[in-house]
Every structure is written in structure tokens, then in C-alpha cells.
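Sequence, please.
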């Protein structure tokens, strides 16, 4: 079925591409912030580079430009509520991170205790891309914490591998 070239068809088509789910975090000055991100990919092994695509209108877009660094927290299958939390603007009314639920990594970015693993990166470069900016990060720290199975995002819903 050929679809019309519009946003709804684009979302529908991209929804068939399953992704993992992460929470991108940063600290700009005193402010810690997190946002659910699925547009995350590895780019280069030498040097170690990753990319995230961040919508221009987000709070994250402004804060990561200030901080120049971020963490990508990889979510496991038990973290659907965390993925939902960091995608909902309601969270901005109160501190986003609860005591005991995170620590600060070497870039100062929050590392979620429940993340199955994480990478920290400094901003290596950016590329304007329509209503998003592609942020390329140079990886400066890596850790796998648990072998929990991943949280999957597919056709607008959260899934696990089973
Ligand atoms: C599963 C999922 C994946 C998402 N991936 C991205 C993404 O890759 N880039 C992005 O800019 N927004 C993404 N979003 C939307 C943001 O998480 C959401 O707009 C968030 O509230 C923006 O946060 P902020 O404006 O407070 O920084 C995603 C949302 C969900 C539910």
C-alpha cells in the first residue's frame, strides 16, 4: 500500500521500525533534565561516536546546547513507566529525579539507577535536520549494569522481547 507523503504516514511507517528506548539526561548549571529518546544510534568506532536526534522545541535541546554533554540511559523491559514519565511534560512541575534513583556521571549528567547500561558523551558536533538537531557525541564513559532484557518501542507501544 503506497501512502501519502505526510506526517501521519511517515509516523505510521516509522512505527514499524522497532527501537530500543533510552532516557537522555544532562545537567546545565544547577538544572538536571531527562527526556525519553528512541532516535539514538552508534555512528563510529574510531573514535567512539553516537548520535541522538533532538527536537528543536524541547527543553533538552536548549539545555544540552548549554551543557555540551549528555548521558544515554538504556532502559530495560521493567522501565516502561520511566519511559512514559520522561516523555510527559507534567514531570517538569517538580524535580525530575528522585533521591536515590540516580547519581551524577563524569560529565555531570544523571545516571539512572534502573538503567541496564549507559553511555556518557561530550558534544562532538551538531547538524540541523528540519525540526530536529542531530547531536553527535564523543563517548567518554560506558557501563553495562544488568543483563535485563530491553524495553522495545514498536508501533506506538512498549513491548518486551517475549
Ligand atoms: C518512545 C519515545 C521516544 C521518543 N524519542 C524522541 C527522540 O528520539 N527525540 C526527541 O526529540 N523526542 C523524542 N520523544 C519525545 C520526547 O520524549 C518528549 O517530547 C519530551 O517530553 C520532551 O522533553 P523536554 O521538552 O522536556 O526536553 C520520544 C517519546 C517517546 C514516548
Amino acid at each position: 500500500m503506497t501512502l501519502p507523503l505526510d506526517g501521519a504516514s511517515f509516523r505510521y511507517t516509522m512505527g514499524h521500525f522497532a527501537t530500543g528506548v533510552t532516557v537522555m539526561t544532562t545537567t546545565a548549571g544547577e538544572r538536571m533534565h531527562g527526556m525519553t529518546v528512541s532516535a539514538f544510534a552508534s555512528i563510529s568506532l574510531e573514535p567512539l561516536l553516537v548520535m541522538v536526534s533532538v527536537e528543536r522545541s524541547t527543553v533538552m535541546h536548549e539545555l544540552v546546547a548549554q551543557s555540551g554533554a549528555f548521558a544515554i540511559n538504556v532502559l530495560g523491559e521493567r522501565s516502561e513507566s520511566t519511559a512514559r514519565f520522561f516523555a510527559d511534560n507534567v514531570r517538569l512541575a517538580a524535580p525530575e529525579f528522585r533521591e536515590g534513583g540516580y547519581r551524577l556521571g563524569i560529565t555531570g549528567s544523571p545516571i539512572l539507577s534502573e538503567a541496564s547500561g549507559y553511555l556518557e558523551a561530550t558534544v562532538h558536533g551538531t547538524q540541523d535536520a528540519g525540526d530536529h538537531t542531530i547531536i553527535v557525541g564523543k563517548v567518554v564513559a560506558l557501563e553495562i549494569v544488568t543483563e535485563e532484557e530491553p524495553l522495545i518501542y514498536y508501533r506506538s507501544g512498549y513491548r518486551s522481547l517475549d
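DSSP finds three helices and twelve strands in the chain.
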